[in-house]
Structure formats: C-alpha cells, structure tokens
Amino acid sequence: MSTLQVDIVSAEEQLYTGQASLVVAPAEEGDVGIAPRHAPLLTRLRPGEVRITQEDGEEYLYYASGGLLEVQPSSVTVLADTAVRAHDIDEAAALEAKRRAEEKLQVQKDEVDYGQVQAELAEAMAQLRTLENLRKRAKR
User: Fold this and answer.
1) What is the pLDDT of residues 45-72, one digit of tens each?
2) What's 118's DSSP letter?
3) 3-state class percentages of the chain: helix first, strand second, coil last, to nearest 5
4) Localized where (predicted)?
5) CA distance 52 to 96
6) Among residues of the chain, what percentage have pLDDT more than 70?
C-alpha cells in the first residue's frame, strides 16, 4: 500500500507531519477523502475535522477552523487558519461559544451581524462534533 506525505500547519505551529494512507478533510463543498495518487486539488476548508489514517490503521483527529487544502498526487497540505489536535479542544469553551452564538441569533437587533454569528456557531459546532467523533473512536 502506498502513502501520502501529510502536513497540517496553522499560523501558530506545525501540528502534524508524516505519512498517511488516507486523509479526510472538510472542503467547502463537502468532505473529501484523499488517497495516494489523488488528482491535484486546491480548495478552501470549512470548520471541521481533519482525519488522518496511517498505513497501520491508526487514526489521528484534528480540528481546523478553515483555511486551504492543497492536494498533489503524493502529498496533502492543510494550511489552517487555526488548528488543534482533537484531544486538545476545550469542550467548555466550545459549549460557551455555542451558547453565546445561539443567544445572539435570538436577539432581533440591527447591530447583530448574523453572518459572523452563524460562522461562530458553525465553528463551535464543528469543534463539538470533532470531540464527539474522538470519543466514539476511543470506545472502539
């Protein structure tokens, strides 16, 4: 089985560099699965989970808040606005961000930027989904 070189980089740090047999990422138009020899692709990322499966079947989960995904036949680069290892997500902060965003959406005032609030809500929900998936995998 062949592998891809995978790099996940945020503005703060390089989170992952190594080989993988499969990468699943949240592209703007829907999740994409990338295997070795994938066609070249450059797309924007939406907030969500990036899953890396190594050749031995071990999986690593990361949360990316958005950014770019570059795919070449033998490499994948995730250039994330913000990225974090799934087990490092602050669940309490994500829940609080979700609560605040939902509260703002309930307010019927002109000063509320609904697009911004919806983006904040989407990020919080994506973080919570990533944590949920991490817990499901841990039970296996």
Assistant:
1) 999 999 999 999 999 999 999 999 999 9
2) H
3) 30, 40, 30
4) Cell membrane
5) 28
6) 95
Sort 39 into a burial class: Cβ within 10 Å, 0-12 / 13-18 / 19+. Answer: exposed
Residue among 93, 5, 8 nearest 49 (CA): 8
**Would you say residue 27 has pLDDT above 70?**
yes
Q: How many helices (H) and strands (E) does the chain have?
A: 2, 10
Q: How far is CA 17 from CA 4, 59, 70, 85, 138, in A?
A: 10, 14, 14, 13, 22
